[in-house]
From TrEMBL:
Part of the 30S ribosomal subunit. Belongs to the universal ribosomal protein uS3 family. It comes from the Eukaryota. GO terms for molecular function: RNA binding; structural constituent of ribosome. Keywords: Chloroplast, Plastid, Ribonucleoprotein, Ribosomal protein. PROSITE patterns: RIBOSOMAL_S3. NCBIfam families: rpsC_bact. GO terms for cellular component: chloroplast; cytosolic small ribosomal subunit. Pfam families: Ribosomal_S3_C. This is Small ribosomal subunit protein uS3c. Residues 152-234 form the Small ribosomal subunit protein uS3 C-terminal domain. It comes from Brachypodium distachyon (Purple false brome).
Length: 239
């Protein structure tokens, strides 16, 4: 039988870390967990809603032309997965929310953070706790599996060949110093009647080595001919 495990959970404490930092009594733990989920969903829904409003607006220029092109694509047709992850740190009277994002142009506008804080306060009803939101830009966005999965999703929604979309995503990782990448896609590929699975791998991917820093994401893509599933592994480095 196959012994499969999530690569991120398998490496917590070595190369991966938790995205929530707080302490609660056992009877209050479920409430804190639900509160974290509400915060993350509220942030993603807010970004998705504002991106739809601003999809026809002019995007500010960036120093890299490839980042401009990618930014335009992401703003015109994708959801909220340019967010790599959201860290939540809870204190007695304060909740710190750190949004790690690949292309933070949307959240840098005036009044956006204040409006997002108001929405979160209404969502979680925290009377005794203040809310502090900060944004951190990811240094190398093209080694983040969430961003690459979003890129593949955008290409497939525009009816680009899945092999071409995957190969282009792997080419984007060449700009970063990584050891290996693997992309697996499943579903009605190309609109065919029978679902199948395709996999493209480049470089090394030591999934059984705990000290190997491997990033992973699983992402559903809703197309006109059904739902496709994308899994992405990126071998960054070995400690």
């Amino acid at each position: 039988m196959g012994q499969k495990i999530n690569p991120l959970g398998f490496r917590i404490g070595t190369t991966q870390k938790h995205h929530s930092f707080w302490f609660a009594q056992p009877k209050n733990y479920s409430e804190g967990l639900q509160e974290d989920k509400k915060i993350r969903n509220c942030i993603k829904n807010y970004i998705q809603k504002n991106r739809k409003k601003g999809s026809n607006r002019k995007i500010e220029s960036d120093s890299s032309s490839e980042v401009i092109t990618h930014n335009r694509k992401m703003d015109s047709g994708s959801s909220s997965k340019v967010i790599t992850h959201i860290e939540i740190q809870k204190e007695i009277d304060m909740i710190h929310v750190i949004i790690h994002i690949g292309f933070p142009n949307l959240l840098k506008k005036k009044g956006v953070i204040e409006e997002l804080e108001k929405d979160l306060q209404k969502e979680i009803n925290s009377v005794n706790q203040r809310l502090n939101i900060s944004i951190e830009k990811v240094k190398e966005p093209y080694i983040q599996p969430n961003i690459l999965a979003e890129y593949i999703a955008f290409q497939l929604k525009n009816r680009v060949s899945f092999r071409k979309a995957i190969k282009k995503a792997i080419e984007l990782t060449k700009k970063a110093d990584i050891r290996g990448v693997k992309v697996k896609i499943a579903g009605r590929l190309g609109g065919k009647e029978i679902a199948r699975t395709e996999c493209i791998k480049k470089g090394r991917l030591p999934l059984q080595t705990i000290r190997a820093k491997i990033d992973y994401c699983c992402y559903p893509i809703r197309t006109i001919y059904g739902v496709l599933g994308v899994k992405l592994w990126i071998f960054v480095d070995e400690e």
